[in-house]
Amino acid sequence: MSRVQLALNVSNIDAAVDFYSKLFGMEPAKRRPGYANFVISQPPLKLVLIENKEAAGSLNHLGVEVETTAEVNTATAHLQQLGVETRTEEQVTCCYALQDKVWVHDPDGAPWEIYQVLGDSQVRDIKPVEVITNNCACS
Questions:
Q1: CA 134 – CA 105 distance, rounded (Å)
Q2: 69: part of which helix (H) or strand (E)?
């Protein structure tokens, strides 16, 4: 099953987790320092909260979580055939998870990722990067 991902910058992770726990009637599926995610079944949504007090806005990035790397590869090929600029990442640690993914930007610069989670990680990401470089947007 695929699900849409919405990643938000928040100024206070504890307050945000409290609010979204009440809103969706559930606790986070994953909670780490400065990070939380909720796996919501109805509507199918992965809500990611990233503590980032310096962020200019609340949107961090958007995404579609898929079940297999083959789905990531199919999406990549499809987007490239349509002339959309892509950047792929394999076996990357991002948002406390090992992932395969492809990044694109919409016409206004909003970053989207299509990704598969391969496994859990105890680190947020391997190296500090910026959204603008299409790397892990969790930093």
A1: 8
A2: helix 69-81
